[in-house]
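Colleagues,

For the teaching module next term, I've prepared a clean inverse folding example: a structure given as tokens, and then the sequence designed for it. I'd like students to try predicting residues themselves before seeing the answer, so please don't circulate the second half yet.
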């Protein structure tokens, strides 16, 4: 038995908006909670905690970005409404942003952690730089979430929650 189109659309919206919201919340957590705490922690401990949280968050962020993009694309395909592609696309912009700006800092931090890195910058300086750059990801994720919420609750072609 085939699912009704309206059910597929509601499920797609929930997945897309939910994934974008979780991503935005996770990004905000880093800037508002984790990084301020790490600034008050001894540098080697802060670096170890940052590295552990990085490995966990990376997997989650990749999954959330992929799921939001696929579900947003599916809803767009069914509705031909571009507002379902813009938020997941905005979230996906974080990928090249991360590779271009944040990955070099990640490499330096991991180099210090494993003893192969250069001693040009201190852990504190690098974590502060990472936090500032990560704020760009937070802005992109939060903007995507606001746009996704707007799109989900303003579209007349999909049943309301």
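(Answer key — instructors only)
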């Amino acid at each position: 038995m085939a699912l009704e189109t309206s059910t597929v659309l509601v499920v797609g919206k929930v997945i897309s908006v939910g994934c974008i919201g979780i991503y935005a919340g996770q990004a905000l957590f880093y800037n508002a909670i984790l990084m301020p705490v790490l600034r008050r922690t001894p540098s080697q401990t802060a670096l170890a905690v940052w590295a552990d949280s990085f490995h966990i968050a990376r997997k989650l962020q990749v999954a959330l970005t992929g799921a939001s993009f696929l579900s947003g694309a599916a809803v767009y395909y069914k509705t031909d409404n571009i507002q379902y592609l813009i938020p997941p696309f905005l979230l996906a912009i974080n990928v090249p942003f991360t590779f271009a700006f944040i990955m070099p800092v990640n490499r330096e931090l991991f180099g210090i952690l494993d003893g192969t890195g250069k001693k040009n910058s201190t852990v504190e300086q690098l974590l502060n730089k990472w936090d500032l750059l990560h704020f760009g990801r937070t802005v992109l994720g939060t903007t995507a979430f606001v746009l996704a919420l707007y799109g989900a609750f303003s579209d007349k072609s999909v049943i309301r929650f």
